[in-house]
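Field: COMPLEX_INPUT
Field: COMPONENT_COUNT = two
Field: RESIDUE_TOTAL = 507
Field: MODE = joint
Values follow.
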Amino acid sequence: MDNTTYIALSRMDAEQRAMSVLANNIANGSTAGFKSGHVQFADYLSRLKDGPHAPGENPEVYVQDRATYRDFTQGALTQTGNPLDIAITGEGFFSVMTAQGVRLTRNGRFQRLSDGSVTDAAGHALLDRTGQPIVLRPQDRTVSIASDGTLSTENGVAAEIGLVRVANNHDLHGEGSELFRASTPTTQMDVKELRQGMLEGSNVNMMSETTNLVELQRDFQITANLVESESTRRQNAIDKLTQTQS
Amino acid sequence: MRSLDIAGTGMQAQQTNVEVIANNIANMTTTGFKRRRPEFQDLIYQDMRRVGTMSSDSGTLVPAGAQVGLGVRTAGIYRINVQGTLEQTNNSLDLAIEGPGYFQITLPSGEYAYTRDGTFSLSDTGQIVTADGYPVSPGITVPNNAQTITVDQTGQVQVTISGQTQSMVVGQLQMATFQNENGLAAMGQNLFTETQSSGNAITGTGQSVGFGDIRQGYVEESNVNVVTEITDLITAQRAYEMNSKVITASDEMLQTLTGLK
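Field: COMPLEX_OUTPUT
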């Protein structure tokens, strides 16, 4: 096959992966704290073995899905009334302790376990400002959380919920279960905007996902048509050439 | 094609969502029922290009990786333990809890169960029992010549007997709370049993610290809000539709691929 077909196929290959990212966004349309992913396409210059291109020489360009990045815009807030549902209405991430170390999350659905510790759905402890797990005492009944992260009960202040900031949100590595691993150091935030009894929904924009879906599908079709017409053109060329020969 | 499977997990999640909503709506007139809400989580991610690795062609660090998530799963279904509205019935053995706490019930097996449904009645032997005939724990027996039954806000049960001027205390209703209410296992019939994750029952009486008040002549209605459920249902239905669109689109793409020559 020639390069026209390869270039077109590289595009179709990248589009298939883009479709997976889009499917994952739509599948997580009701996942609290989910941040949608997007694909960044890039041209991929084929490199010649013998160094840089000569002036005027056209390199062949392949498509490559260079990276996926996440859109960290705020998701819509919904009222749940659960005292340990906490939504972040600005920057920052909650930090939780997993067996593999500290992980970050925007999913603010926390619960109180029988030992008094405040954890996420998987039982990872929510950390306070100093990086220690937040534990409530048996006599603590009513939990109220101020917007600055102060968690108090009828027995006074119990903890200060920690919120961390990452220098570059793109350094966050999604691990599933709404958890991110930061590959760069994180810093505790001083100004926090928390809302008790609310949850941050997924920030997937169904409207733009739908248009992307249609666009992607049509694009795929057009590229497939290109591959097909290229094949026909070559077939015709071969036919014509063989006719002249005979 | 990965997107087919991913959208499949999305449809499954929305199906669960609709099932939970259906159960909430079905129980909108169930006494003491607490609405449920499913919680979803994204599945693991597959790395196409890992963040922070060296790019093979230019020798620079990859600034952002390429990660493809593999869909969604149901992480749990939680009860929203918000107080339901109290409805007046004037029935002396209809009791509602205003605030935290559960009534403690003895099951035929001898184990305890807990409920917010306080529609009690008397058994043939005069015991205070639930609608299913399970006695409250500790058991309270009302003499058969009792004229009136009064339950105060702490749960103390008093009766007056004809011919006597003084009322008589026949028992004290016990209540229970838990460190982790959501850890209770629902067993149907408006009953819950304790589990390892709920922690042991902390018992007490009405109006004491950490317990609600007992209101005689009232029942606690379910806390299902029809408007919320309907809007949630519409959202779930649309989300389901979107996922099925992804499946159709992926299928068409596959068809295009297989048709290539």
